[in-house]
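Readers outside the structure-tokenisation community will struggle with the description of the input data as it stands. I therefore recommend that a typical entry be quoted early in the introduction. An entry of this sort, consisting of the sequence and the corresponding backbone structure tokens, reads as follows:
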Amino acid sequence: MPERAIGAFVFPDAWKDISRFREVLVSLRQHGVNAILTESETYETPAIEAAHDLGLRFYAGIACFSDHATKFRSLTERPELWPILESGERRPLMEWYIGISPTDRRHQEEILATIRSIAADHPIDGIFLDFVRWPVHWEIELRPGRVRPLDSSFDATTLAQFEQTFGTQLPTGPVASRAAWIRERGFRAWVDFKCKVVTEFVCEARSSLKMVKPAAELGIYVVPEVDGLTEPLTGQRLGELAPAVDWVSPMLYHNILLQRPNWIGPALSEVVRVAGPKTLPVVQADSNRNPGLAADWGPPMSDADWNATLAEVAARSDIAGVAVFPGTSLIGNGRGEALRSMVDKWR
């Protein structure tokens, strides 16, 4: 069996100081990590080379349909990208997230150009597509007991494309009445349309990456299945996406979703059933944020919770490995040693 991928997701701040980043890499490597995952609009080759010098793979990441990292610069410059709800109102800011309507061709082409640029300018091993979905702050909106998540986008460009794709004539009038017609009479076609948009973009992303760097691998972060809501909200249809990518990474952030670790196993099995050995689950290692200051990552996670999280993936022989979010939570405590113990058993 090929060596399994043991990934650590790090935020860009971790590799801005190269000297400090090397220390982080050494520690992660000691804990069994063999791949670095990150996400940014720009990259620094010395950081990538530092990973390679230690025998670690380096996977860039790009936020496709979200501009939260730039403080909503795209939405400010181009308001037509703002997701529109069924009511006709703009999707509101939820914590740090709004989202971007995925049907805008100009924005799609900008993301594809960025993929080509990153691949051409830096010695990356691959790229992971993030936020390659229709707008939903799933970590919050799919928590137990929440009201129905907000569906979007019902902007003019999207509705026109929907009509053209399926030959559907929507009623005239305000957005609310058109959205109501879709939900009542054309919902299956609406979901198929959303999936078509995402799948076609991912296929274009693959072509863009392989055109510049044929050996580079393409990964995709996917939202886990929750109560049958995930595909209709996100447009991520695994059966269509899996053939287009090298890695399918479900974000199994149980603690953010206010679930117990035993939620991970069934959620992972749903992805493996479709994606098979391409499945690279991402598991949550800690809740290290104060929701009053930043994102709500759920209640504090104990070491026992982390060990139970690892147990949900440790016995599986049908996955490509595991990735840890955030990777820096493995350093300076017993969590890195627990991961190392699991990795040693895999080998």
Observations:
- Residues 5-346 form a domain with the TIM Barrel fold (CATH 3.20.20.80).
- The chain has a mean pLDDT of 95.
- The radius of gyration is 20 Å.
- Residues 187-212 form the longest helix (26 residues).
